[in-house]
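As agreed, record passed on underneath.
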Amino acid sequence: MPISFDKALGNLPENLTLYGQRSSLLASNLANADTPGFKARDIDFRSVLAKAGGTQISLKTTQGAHLGGASSAMSEATKLYRVPIQPSIDGNTVDTQIETAEFTKNSIRYQSTLAFLNGTFKSLRLAIKGE
């Protein structure tokens, strides 16, 4: 019986990609904490993953010489503005405590997803060796 890597890995690769992209978005929020008028953004992880259908979205090629590939499921349309608890006078909506907490939670989720993915690869390697 052949091994299906898509079934074996599930949606772990997509989760890892989204967690990485969310880290960049949250880091941008933190970097702009003192920028007047900056609006903090975040994503709803579940809705982005559901929109992607657990698979990568194909890129459209317009010429035969273009390379195919997969795009990010996290587009500008999926980035939401964070509603501030206490808005600042200069219009900046970044709350560094919230952003730091979200960044930390996201990092933990990224690391645990990576650990699960590594475990899956180890299991597959053992199965292929027949051990």
About this structure: Strands lie at 41-43, 57-58, 70-71, 79-81.
